[in-house]
Write a structure and sequence with these properties.
The chain is α/β, with parallel strands linked by helices. The protein contains 6 helices and 7 strands. A hairpin with a 3-residue loop joins strand 2 and strand 3. It is globular. The relative contact order is 0.20.
Length: about 200
């Protein structure tokens, strides 16, 4: 296991209008990640908010790697340039970049870890792929399911979670933080195997 730092970016849209929308699940996960580390967010010159700390315990008992949890002060479809700026600023190898994002192609609350791959229609990932010039980074996909009935995809992802569902989403967010902790302390492949076997 490497003790190199990790950059964990939660995708979403800025401002209170979008705070509890499905498209903002990445923001909600990194908020919980910052709480887990006992750290608060500070403004970064790259138009982002970043909370830096150590996460978890390495095998043998040493403190876990340094983790920068980031939320971007830009809209989803222009995420790439800011992610690139943060990667360059912190000198992060793309193998230690983890993007947390909503996933229409997974049932609600299902979590999947993925290394590399295309954007599959996700504008945030497309922007990141274009800016980094590589698809070889880690993703934590948080299932939000498909829109009901004739509801458009855009309206669905930008709608708020129903209030009665928030307790269940809190559990999913906590599981996402656990998965991130395992990625940085035990390695991506081990975390992926554990997460998917416990589906």
């Amino acid at each position: 296991m490497s003790n190199e730092p990790w950059l964990v970016v939660g995708l979403g849209n800025p401002g209170p209008r979008y705070e509890l929308t499905r498209h903002n699940i990445g923001h909600l996960v990194v908020d919980a990640l910052a709480d887990e580390m006992g750290e608060s967010f500070n403004k970064h010159k790259a138009r982002a908010k970043v909370a830096s700390g150590r996460l978890g315990i390495l095998p043998g008992g040493a403190p876990g790697p340094k983790v920068m949890a980031a939320k971007l002060d830009t809209y989803m479809n222009t995420s790439g340039p800011i992610v690139k700026a943060l990667v360059d600023f912190y000198q992060i190898d793309p193998a230690h970049l983890l993007i947390v994002h909503d996933e229409l192609d997974l049932p609600e609350h299902e979590l999947r870890l993925k290394q590399s791959g295309g954007a599959a229609g996700h504008n945030g990932l497309k922007s990141i792929n274009d800016s980094l010039g590589t698809k070889d980074y880690c993703r934590l996909r948080v299932g939000i399911g498909r829109p009901p009935g004739q509801m458009s995809t855009a309206d669905f992802v930008l709608s708020n979670f129903p209030a009665k569902q928030l307790p269940q989403w809190s559990v999913t967010i906590a599981k996402a933080v656990d998965a991130i902790s395992e990625v940085v302390t035990k390695g991506f492949l081990t975390a992926q195997q554990d997460l998917h076997s416990n589906k």
